[in-house]
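Q: What would this chain look like folded?
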Amino acid sequence: MAASRRRRRGVLTIAAAAAAVALATGLTTGCDAVNKALDCVQTADSIADSVTDLQQAVANAANDPTQADASLNSIEKNLEKIGDKTDDADVNKAVDDLRKAVDNVRTAIKDGDETPDVSPVTDAAGELTKVCTS
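A: My prediction, written as structure tokens:
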């Protein structure tokens, strides 16, 4: 009878431990998803700030043409952060679209356009923010 109780207690202990591991794994996975979403939103916010800086830099290109390049570099750096932290198809598409828009502005500046159209960058950044918060 005592052996039967010990065996039952051992089975219950193992079952409880297995349940705890399963619960912890589920919670960790959930937290990872939340952390990734927060990283996405925070980085998208940083990109939005860089886009604002880019708009101002393009408007003031005659005064300091290096500001636009610095803003583009900042956007690209933040895009790398998002790309490294997500496997979400919508986020990756938004990152790719924004990267293309940034490349187009950079090319326009290199080709001598002192006031390139930055609206595709603004639109793509808005889409990235949208997918990060949905």
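Confidence is low (pLDDT under 50) at residues 2-30.
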